[in-house]
Specification:
single chain; mainly alpha; 66% helix
């Protein structure tokens, strides 16, 4: 029987403690019962009860799919603003500054710190000033 080997970093993420932490975080955020199907909840609960580390490639693949789903549901508003608004704004500001002659502005669009700053500024902006 051929054996599927998962990368070592995948197996290290799939421990019982990580699953328990993710489950607790999802319950506290209110997405465990509201947004996760029953079959996914049962899969995670049984995995937590039965094993301390996942060795089966099939189980690991299914648990990874559930954890990705949960991580998407638990994404913070800062990350949503980061992805949606701040990256586009950083690219626009970079182009404008380059047109004005700032040669170092080329790096602004890919600078994570600058994009984070723009996302935080967007979130904290009063609603009266937002378009």
């Amino acid at each position: 029987m051929p054996q599927t080997v998962l990368p070592e970093n995948t197996l290290s993420l799939l421990t019982k403690t990580q699953l328990v932490k993710l489950r607790l975080k999802a319950i506290r955020a209110g997405v465990w019962f509201r947004a996760l199907p029953r079959i996914d909840r049962v899969l995670v609960d049984l995995t937590i009860r039965v094993t301390s580390s996942i060795r089966s490639a099939t189980l690991a693949k299914n648990i990874l799919a559930v954890t990705r789903k949960l991580e998407g549901l638990l994404e913070s508003s800062l990350l949503r603003a980061f992805r949606g608004f701040a990256i586009q704004l950083a690219q626009k500001l970079s182009l404008i500054a380059q047109k004005w002659g700032n040669t170092s502005a080329k790096r602004w669009a890919s600078d994570v710190s600058f994009v984070n700053f723009l996302a935080v500024m967007h979130i904290n902006e009063p609603k009266t000033f937002k378009m």
